Every structure is written in C-alpha cells, then in structure tokens.
Amino acid sequence: MAKLNVNGRTIEVEVEGDTPLLWVLREQLNLTGTKYGCGIAQCGACTVHVDGAATRSCSMPVSAFDENQKIVTIEGLSPDSSHPIQQAWLALDVPQCGFCQPGMIMAAAALVAATPRPTEAQIREEITNICRCGTYNRVIAGIQRATTGPGAAG
C-alpha cells in the first residue's frame, strides 16, 4: 500500500514498492497524460512535478514518495489549460505529433517556476526532453512567449 499526494488529493494505492510512479499514475489512477517513452528517464515523456521539480516518473519507484510530497501531473497543472506555458503552446502551435508534449510542458513549467525569465541558453540547458519531431525551436519560442510575451506570468 502506498499513500501519495497527486494533483492535490491524497490517494492510497495497492502496489509493489518497486513499481515506477509512471505506472501507478497511468494504470492505478488513470492519469494517462503522463506518457511512457523510454523507461530509463532519458526522453522526458513521463515528466511530472514532485514538490515543483521536474521529475521523470518512469524510473522512480513509488516507494521513494510519501504523502507529504506533492506530485503534479499534466492533468493537475491547470484545470482549464490556462497555465502560461499551455497558452503559449496553443498560440504558437508548438507540438507536431504531440506525444512528448505533456512531459515537455511539465519540464517547461518547472523551469519557469524556478527561473521566471530564462535565457535561451538556460532553456537549452534545462529542457532535456526528447522530441522525435524536432520542435525544439518552437519549444524555446513557447517558453519565451510564456515568460515575456502576451499573457506572460510575472
């Protein structure tokens, strides 16, 4: 049994302690916005926030978490897609296929929460998620728009 705080709710799940958080989110809690990509924490499709930090959930066992840690998935980032990153993504049509985008959005949201006006160099250094479609320039533009353009936070 594990007790987790996910998207503001305390949830108990019956699961082995070595089960990756990703599978608890997807299979036990039906939060399928968090994607499985590589399974070895390299691609970032599984990125969620843990206490505000971008965390790759595919390689973190559920036993590493407790109910005091706040886990936020793409579903919990904003109930109506009004987060500045989500709005910038929409305005600039950032995704192509879209598979990696929940993880990319979560990584970008964590970055701008920690660094409200990141430089392009900081974005390139911090956003290490892989996009098979290669929309990196649009990701950079989306983060810049979210932090300095129309509707920017802060």
TrEMBL record:
Q: Pfam families attached here? A: Fer2 (PF00111), Fer2_2 (PF01799)
- InterPro entries from the UniProt entry: 2Fe-2S-bd, 2Fe-2S-bd_dom_sf, 2Fe-2S_ferredoxin-like_sf, 2Fe-2S_ferredoxin-type, 2Fe2S_fd_BS, Beta-grasp_dom_sf, Diverse_Oxidoreductases
Outline the extent of the 2Fe-2S ferredoxin-type domain: 1-77
Keyword Iron applies = yes
Q: Cite the GO molecular-function annotations of the record.
A: 2 iron, 2 sulfur cluster binding; metal ion binding; oxidoreductase activity
Task: Give a yes or no for keyword Iron in this entry.
Answer: yes
Q: Which UniProt keywords apply?
A: 2Fe-2S, Iron, Iron-sulfur, Metal-binding, Oxidoreductase
Q: Which domain of life is it from?
A: Bacteria
User: What's this protein's name?
Assistant: (2Fe-2S)-binding protein
Which organism is this entry from?
Plastoroseomonas arctica
